[in-house]
Amino acid sequence: MARKIALLNYKGGVGKTSLIVNLAACLARLGLRVLLFDFDTQSNASIWLLRLERWNKINNTGVGAIFSIFYPGTATLRDLLVRDVVEGKTGDKLLPGLDLVPTTFNLVDLESEYEGDPRKPPYLLFNEQLRELEGEYDFILFDCPPNILRASQCGIFSANEVYVPANPDALSLIGFTLLVEKLHKFHQLSASFRVAEMGPPAAVEGIIFNSIKAGVDIEVPRMRMQLRMNQYKAQRRVASTARLFETQVRDATIVRRAVALGLPVVLVGQETEEKDNVLNDYRRLAQEILKHGELL
Ligand SMILES: Nc1ncnc2c1ncn2[C@@H]1O[C@H](COP(=O)(O)OP(=O)(O)OP(=O)(O)O)[C@@H](O)[C@H]1O
Ligand SMILES: [Mg+2]
Fold first, then answer.
1. 253-261 vs 273-293: helix axis angle to the nearest 10?
2. Is residue 177 classed exposed, middle or buried when 0-12, 13-18 and 19+ CB atoms within 10 A define those classes?
3. Any idea which ligand is nearest the CA of 259?
4. What does the DSSP 8-state code read for residue 201?
5. CA pair distance 188, 191, nearest whole angstrom
6. How far is the CA of 131 from the centre of ligand 1 (A)?
7. Alpha-carbon gap, residue 95 to 184, rounded angstroms
8. Domain count for the chain
């Protein structure tokens, strides 16, 4: 069965999208079959991987966007798969094994205008369709906005593992605290819809520090995060296997450049020491996630 993972923090801008896109790319490079869902109406992951021209077509027509599955009869998840999403300028497939289900700006309407059957919330509808695809993947990843509203609920309800990207600052710690609270509430709310084959409800399995500047000592923020994690473990509010990841992803301008180029860092052509270094961080992260899976 695919491992289903959401990256989430109630603090925005901590690196959820950058981490998930580069993690997905590193896993695909290892020969694993990876499906990435973009549940953030900002569409950052979708624009990044499709590049603007392909994404604009979907945004202008609505055809191919995740939003359409919430209008039964319009499309199914399978119709929305963009297989081997990363393409070169001539349409050549650059990263076989990485598929995307993209989003567009209209996903925001799910929060205010959705009038579906109240006995079937969007996350249940999504999960039913996801179960038909699961067997085809090793990893299913959900990029979420910094909240647990309707769109993120789809990812969280279906995921079994949550990893929390964090910057070494107080706001990331507050974001983690809020996340654990809201996650708990959502699981209570959605418990009656869970079935055994979905596996356990998504629990925090790890904290990943991101955008660490050279020469900056982050021992104190790590220690504060560790203390909070220990408290939550004692209260069984995070997984018993949860921990601060050893891998820290450094701050590197090539990460922002990769977004502009529409490529994950692994495919950015220019070889530089900076690229090698941050790419090694992403590769280590992929290995640590794989290894963590042995504990679950
Ligand atoms: N390791 C890094 N080095 C340098 N810049 C980074 C790194 N990781 C992320 N960034 C930059 O930080 C900004 C925020 O990152 P990102 O969009 O991944 O965060 P996010 O948590 O997904 O944000 P949001 O909450 O808006 O979805 C972006 O401009 C991104 O390019
Ligand atoms: Mg994001």
1. 90
2. middle
3. 1
4. P
5. 5
6. 30
7. 37
8. 1
Spans of the chain below 50 pLDDT: none
What is the separation, in whole angstroms, between the first and last Cα of the chain?
A: 13
User: DSSP letter string over 101-150?
Assistant: E---GGGGHHHHT----TTS-HHHHHHHHHTTTGGG-SEEEEE--SS-SH
Q: State phi, psi for 84 to the nearest 5 degrees.
A: 45, 60
CATH number for the domain spanning 18: value is: 3.40.50.300
Helical spans, DSSP H, in 147-250: 150-158, 170-190, 219-234
Distance 18 CA to ligand 2 centre (A): 7
Q: Ligand 1 pocket by C-beta < 6 Å: which residues?
A: 12-18, 40, 42, 44, 145-146, 210-211, 249, 251-252, 255-256, 259
Burial of 113 (0-12, 13-18, 19+ CB in 10 A): exposed
Q: Which ligand is nearest to the CA of 21?
A: 1
Give the pLDDT score at 118. 80
Q: What is d(CA 232, CA 252) in angstroms, rounded to the nearest whole number?
A: 32
Contact 189, 229 (CB under 8 A): no
Instruction: State which residues form the domain around 17.
Output: 3-293
* Counts of helices then strands in the chain (DSSP H, E): 10, 7
- Token couple for 196: 């055994």
Query: What is the C-alpha to C-alpha distance for residues 100 and 30, in angstroms, rounded to an integer?
Result: 17
What residues pair up with 36 in beta bridges, in sequence order?
100, 141
Q: Is 187 helix (H, G, I), strand (E, B) or coil?
A: helix
User: Which contiguous run of DSSP H or E holds residue 163?
Assistant: strand 161-166
Q: What Cα–Cα distance (Å) separates residue 206 from each residue in 65, 130, 224, 233, 240?
A: 30, 24, 14, 12, 11
Stated pTM of the model: 0.98
The DSSP element (H or E) to which 205 belongs, if any, is strand 203-209
